[in-house]
Amino acid sequence: MVEAVANSPSSSGKQPGFITIGYRGSFAFGRDGLADVKFRKITRILVCGRVNLCRDVFGETLNESRDPDHGLSDRYTARFFLKHSSIEQAFDMLQEQGFRMAGSCGSGTAGGTAADLKPGVDAEESRWNHYNEFVFVRD
């Protein structure tokens, strides 16, 4: 199926395919339960998909430094990330290139103890960690 989708032209003339966007974040609620000005903290937006599609959609905002197979574009990768941390900007870029959201999922943490944390990790912030993924498709 992946081969059929990758090789068939779409009605828009652009190559069809899938791109998955993921991020690990932390809601910015403090010890007092008060909402901070920054509702969520996103450290990095991950990008998975066919290399040439990711490059077409995200252009110069795509960071390829963690991908060991530089140069080859007819392959898949899960090692790209964006140079910015604005999830809305990433969604806008996908929509402008004809992608639509096909699905999403998310998970959260249930706290844990300070003994479970690595040194230097804020125990309060780790209680509010979550991970989300969004799958986009262009037919």
UniProtKB/TrEMBL annotation:
Keywords: Cell membrane, Cell projection, Membrane, Phosphoprotein. Its main location: membrane. GO terms for cellular component: neuron projection; plasma membrane. InterPro entries: H1_KCTD8_12_16 (IPR057093). Residues 17-138 form the KCTD8/12/16 H1 domain. It is found in: Cell membrane; Cell projection, Neuron projection. This is KCTD8/12/16 H1 domain-containing protein. It comes from Graphocephala atropunctata. The lineage of its organism: Eukaryota, Metazoa, Ecdysozoa, Arthropoda, Hexapoda.
